Amino acid sequence: MAAEEAVGAPPAVASQVEEKKGTSQQIDPYNVAGEVDESGNIKAIDYDRLIQEFGVQPLTEDHLRRFEAVTGKKAHRLMRRKLFFSHRDFDKILDTYEQYGTFMLYTGRGPSSGSMHLGHTVPFLFTKELQDMFDVPLVIMLTDDEKYLYTRNKNEGHQKAGAAADDFLDYAYENIKDIIALGFDPKKTFIYTDYEYLGGHFYRNVSEFESLVTFNQASGAFGFGNSTNIGLIAYGAKQCVAAFPSSYPDLFGYKDYRAPEYDLSAKRRHKPLSTIPTLIPCAIDQEPYFRILRDRCDRMTDPHPKTALILSKFLTALQGPGGKMSASDPNSAIFMSDTPNQIKNKINRHAFSGGRESLEEHRKLGGNPDVDVAYTYLSYFLDDDEELEELASKYRSGELLTGEMKQRCIAELQKFVGAFQEKREGVTHEIMREYMRPRRLEYQGNPNPTRPASSAPPANGVPAAEDAGAEKKGDGRGTKGERKAAKLAAKKEEKMATRQKAPDGDGGASSPAA
Amino acid sequence: MTAPPPVGAPPAVEKEKDERKPAKQKIDPWNVAGEVDEGGNVKAIDYDRLIEDFGVQPLTRAHLDRFEKVTGKPAHRLMRRKLFFSHRDFDKILDYYEQHGQFMLYTGRGPSSGSMHLGHTVPFLFTKELQELFDVPLVIMLTDDEKFLHTRNKNEGQMKAGSAPEDFLNFAHDNARDIIALGFDPKKTFMYSDYEFLGGHFYRNVSEFESMVTYNQASGAFGFNESTNIGLISFMAKQCVAAFPSSYPDLFGLPDYRAPDYDSSAKRRHKELASIPCLIPCAIDQEPYFRMVRDRSERMHDPHPKPALIMSKFLTALQGPGGKMSASDPNSAIFMSDSPAQIKNKINKHAFSGGQQTEEEHRRLGGNPDVDVAFTYLSYFLEDDAELEDLAKRYRAGEILTGEMKAKCISFVQGFVADFQKRREGVTEEVMREFMRPRRLVYGGNPNPVKKQKESSDGWAGAGSEAVGGGEGKEGKEGRGTKGERKAAKLAEKKAEKEAEKLALREKS
């Protein structure tokens, strides 16, 4: 994704901006910089300010209550803890889920060599847990081509060693194995890289989307210039249509048309897929990116619902608020490749403490859990609100020392990272390829939707036969020869469907709200 | 292909220029305008000037002689008649063919509804006949995506009815059937539309090429601006890498890697394919386009030879020199959908004549075949030089009247179009799909290349001097895939090595 290494992670800052004194906060897909005060101190990000500037909505208690009503489960801890704190159209997703029973999750990563760190994995974990709670399909996009184009652009058109197109595809494979090791459900997760997957319906959507974005608009959003290469300029369209279920017909039991098979009965577009909305969990700096997407969803030939976003703050770097997690600075974050000892040392030595200078002061005045990194990390992992609250209150009262907080945190992290590493060992090439195989995904969605969709593709059923006949001219049905072949196939399906149809099935009338 | 519809056809002029003001000649992918003199007359294109301006090479008698020597066949009539009159690196193609025995031909068309006209078909015919003369593989690209992007851009982001991506894909299918009806050999011709084919190795090449073209360079070459959509801005990379054999591994018997098969033993790049050169027959206004690919071929990760070009003049419109063939003006050209009567009428009524005003004058002074459209069209089709020369001579002498020249021309063109229409009837959906199926192409190339190709593990014809997979494993990352894939590939290599050793031993003894 753009300059970022992962959705949800604080991005490595693309340009080395001199940290002047007295500059205002700057957040966009290529910059994450807090305000710098007169003395040159970097202040923590002002998220309320950001909500206002971007015009996004805050995630409120109402949303959490609604979530619980609709899923029958407790709101995810990262929402309760307000790591995920803002959104666009999250309520519409809940509406759709309540009524029609499904939506698609979408997230991604820009592949790079080397391990992921907590800044990457925590948001992926959130996505996985959302997937479990809602029981919905998820696509994960590895943007190997964007990384290649971006890197080459940064190097003024020169391709350095280790930065060829094929290298990024290789990094993508390594990253995918990492992601799989977080425990995604292979039955409802599709992972792909652009270099392998681009084509067919996905490419058709890319082409249509590209025609809706001018050079001005792309440069405005991403800071391109006249020396930017044309690949990078055009790339955004791919990341946007990656949010459309209609880009992945195979996952929903529809046919794609691709070299070399060119399935003749495959439609050029599958209209029913365009009605399924998508939810994107990501860090708030990605928001301008998806604004480009949201502004154009309903201008597609088959209008798509505006993509929903649930946005997170930046995860706190080891050095505390104002710091940045960075793949190039081992002491800024816990890495998934860290040993138990490394984790222990990093937390003990580098994690910013909310405690007092001396034991005596701490006992007397207490510590501040809000800026304490060990506590913050615990808040990402500890599910029990009461337990977490107890830690906070004991810390504030001075009962709990920094060392003890750190110890608790270390134990939790070692457990998490240890479990990850073990799972990672078990991710073979074959397992990876299975996640990457375009195939029908299996999921139940909402077990009790109020309006079951009969024409939207049901989670596990065969697409309704009416779908084949319902599309009139210009619905991307293919050429005359192809339509003839499709008609014969449709007649056959109709015959079979009329035998099985329920009396109230009305095919085509009710679809998830756009 | 950007504004001009097909390769080789005179493009429709985008802007309506005031044709009365004196103006210099202007030729580029969006403009084909002859010089306008003081009297507001549009002069014929000055091709010598164009050769100079573009810095291309003229096709000379020496080239034709070399062609004949290397192929053992007479130089193609359109080269003899100088319709194809200039080139870049045509001699290098002949060298390579002589030494290594093959190259790839590449041409294309921007799909549109409606019939092709002679301006489209004659260059395709030339390509087909080159393919036969050399016995080499040909790829034909249908740029449905570009047409979509260009049309939408022209309409300021609005998508009018009949201009959705699927519509252009449908046009591409129709055009494909027209092209097939010209008689291309299904065994060595691959046709594809971008919407259907993009992916795999082709896309990998696109991505690499895109990284080598800046917005400035693209806009400079094609006149983009800040309101141009990003699809159109980036499209040219596709048309450029379409000239690389490495974009089509299947055609050469090598595996691609694509959804949904993901052949895990497939290499990310096939280095051996990078050495095969390409020849592009096209009209000269396309030259700025291919300059972009020539400037970057060698900068690809696996350096590619610069694509060679053999370029034509613009075919003469019915109304004569200075006129333009246009799909929207039925009387500017013979269309492949014309009936015999329409052809007869068009030639008789609209074909510019090189004759005199009256029969008596004509018998006395003679006519000028050089500006006579009927004669010009005959020169595209009549194979026999002597016969054509005789016609010209007798026309100049006043022996042949305009009407007779026209009658002869009509007869030829009717025959050509009738044959086409008949063949077109027979081009079914299945026939089209076979041309469009990525599969190994079968061709002989030069039966006596100087450097015999070594036997390779998958035995395809002549990949330069290295055997397939020969020198690959040594140099760092050759796009070999991940560890798991390399392991699998290594086992396969060891097996192949053992077999090669056995073969070598056998050959020694």
From TrEMBL, chain B:
InterPro entries: aa-tRNA-synth_I_CS, aa-tRNA-synth_Ic, Rossmann-like_a/b/a_fold, Trp-tRNA-ligase. GO terms for biological process: tryptophanyl-tRNA aminoacylation. Residues 13-27, 472-509 have a biased composition (Basic and acidic residues). It comes from the Eukaryota. Signal peptide: none annotated. Pfam families: tRNA-synt_1b. The keyword Manganese does not apply. One of its GO terms (cellular component) is cytoplasm. Belongs to the class-I aminoacyl-tRNA synthetase family. Its EC number is 6.1.1.2. Keywords: Aminoacyl-tRNA synthetase, ATP-binding, Cytoplasm, Ligase, Nucleotide-binding, Protein biosynthesis. The keyword Nucleotide-binding applies. It is an enzyme of class 6 (ligase). It comes from Meristemomyces frigidus. Residues 1-34, 441-509 are annotated as: Disordered. It is found in: Cytoplasm. The lineage of its organism: Eukaryota, Fungi, Dikarya, Ascomycota, Pezizomycotina. One of its GO terms (molecular function) is tryptophan-tRNA ligase activity. This is Tryptophan--tRNA ligase, cytoplasmic.
